[in-house]
């Protein structure tokens, strides 16, 4: 598509409501496409090579708490004032903020005077600050070693949770979750980021048709829902809040995950059960087995072990498998899709999966995909519904 065609499509959106999420998304997509068509390809390629320096500047700014200081200051603030407040060198602060202003994360109102904007406020929030520490100190520190790792391993995707980019970079044989457990401050950042930012998206119980897909045809003599690897039970509690009937609900996870549940945090009707999903599933014949952000942590061979234990526990033609994860399109994935897949490659040798990849994996395990359900936000998690057929 040439620039004139993109400009025409953007002009057609001018008469529409830009407060509408879909219109805004389309306008943003077209504006990025227009930028790409107008930019000098050589300059764009060079900028890509230097792109890691932008998050490096942000990570330094996080250490000096510059975003918060700029965001909370009444009016413009100078590098000298920021140096006095943070303990950093004035020249260093000026050079860091110059980079961040160029990409829109702070605003330089005049020579060496800075103010915040919406992006400054966003990055100054606790969960996003935590994300910058976690991603830089764990993810980026590992991914920079990926080219060398892949050269030494015949350029094949890592699939072993104890022998991937992170282990290579940190000289460890611990898997990602075990390694993170040895880093208390980064574990706290990880939980802060995951627990708060992901919660802003639309909740699955609000768009997945539970009455028609689970309640209709449900046998009350069987468990309704088993949340496998459910952590502190937020998904299951939300389900119970919306459907407070006296159904059997099970929360399963490893002991170290369950011990964080505080008294009164979950409804007493939710049965808490220690369980490793790589072993036999003890709850048989439930209406639904729910797994949220589990499979993307693991390569196919490990997912097949999990699925084997679920298949033997399920009642053919009755029990449903609900996988709550990203469902990548088979082509033309978004930037977020591609980045998150790289993140999962870095973590435990896992991956985000497309429709075709989900279908292949589930059919190999003896399941049939009933439907792919994707919410309005294409970058949000969907539901893969599958069954063991009679």
UniProtKB/TrEMBL annotation:
Single GO molecular function: protein dimerization activity
Establish whether keyword Hydrolase is in the entry. Answer: no
Write down the InterPro entries for this protein, in alphabetical order. COMT-like, COMT_C, COMT_dimerisation, SAM-dependent_MTases_sf, WH-like_DNA-bd_sf, WH_DNA-bd_sf
The residue ranges of the O-methyltransferase dimerisation domain are 47-110
Q: Where is the active site?
A: 296
Record-annotated O-methyltransferase C-terminal domain positions? 223-368
This chain's source organism reads Patellaria atrata CBS 101060
Query: Which GO biological process entries does UniProt record here?
Result: methylation
Q: What is the recorded name of this protein?
A: Sterigmatocystin 8-O-methyltransferase
Transmembrane portions of the chain: none
Has keyword Iron? no
State the UniProt keywords alphabetically.
Methyltransferase, S-adenosyl-L-methionine, Transferase
């Amino acid at each position: 598509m040439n620039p004139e065609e993109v400009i025409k499509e953007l002009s057609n959106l001018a008469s529409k409501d830009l407060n509408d999420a879909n219109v805004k998304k389309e306008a943003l997509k077209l504006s990025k496409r227009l930028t790409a068509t107008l930019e000098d390809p050589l300059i764009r390629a060079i900028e890509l090579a230097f792109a890691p320096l932008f998050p490096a500047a942000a990570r330094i700014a996080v250490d000096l708490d510059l975003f918060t200081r700029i965001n909370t200051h009444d009016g413009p603030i100078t590098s000298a004032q920021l140096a006095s407040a943070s303990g950093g060198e004035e020249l260093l602060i000026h050079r860091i903020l110059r980079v961040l202003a160029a990409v829109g994360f702070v605003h330089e109102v005049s020579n060496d005077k800075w103010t915040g904007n919406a992006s400054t406020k966003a990055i100054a929030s606790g969960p996003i600050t935590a994300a910058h520490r976690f991603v830089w100190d764990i993810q980026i520190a590992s991914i920079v070693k990926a080219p060398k790792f892949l050269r030494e391993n015949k350029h094949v995707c890592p699939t072993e949770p104890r022998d991937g980019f992170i282990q290579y970079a940190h000289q460890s044989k611990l898997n990602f979750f075990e390694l993170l457990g040895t880093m208390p401050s980064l574990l706290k950042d990880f939980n802060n980021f995951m627990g708060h930012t992901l919660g802003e998206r639309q909740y699955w119980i609000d768009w997945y048709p539970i009455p028609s897909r689970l309640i209709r045809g449900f046998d009350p003599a069987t468990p309704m829902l088993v949340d496998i690897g459910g952590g502190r039970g937020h998904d299951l509690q939300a389900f119970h809040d919306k459907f407070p009937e006296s159904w059997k609900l099970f929360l399963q996870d490893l002991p170290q995950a369950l011990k964080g549940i505080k008294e009164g945090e979950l409804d007493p009707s939710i049965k808490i059960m220690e369980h490793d999903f790589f072993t036999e599933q003890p709850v048989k014949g439930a209406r639904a087995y729910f797994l949220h952000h589990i499979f993307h942590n693991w390569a196919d061979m490990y997912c097949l072990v999990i699925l084997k234990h679920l298949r033997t526990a399920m009642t053919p033609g009755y029990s449903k498998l609900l996988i709550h994860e990203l469902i990548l399109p088979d082509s033309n994935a978004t930037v977020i899709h591609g980045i998150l897949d790289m993140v999962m490659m870095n973590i435990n040798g896992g991956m985000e999966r497309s429709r075709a990849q989900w279908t292949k994996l589930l059919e190999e395990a003896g399941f049939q995909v009933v439907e792919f359900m994707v919410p309005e936000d294409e970058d949000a998690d969907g539901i893969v519904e599958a069954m063991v057929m009679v």
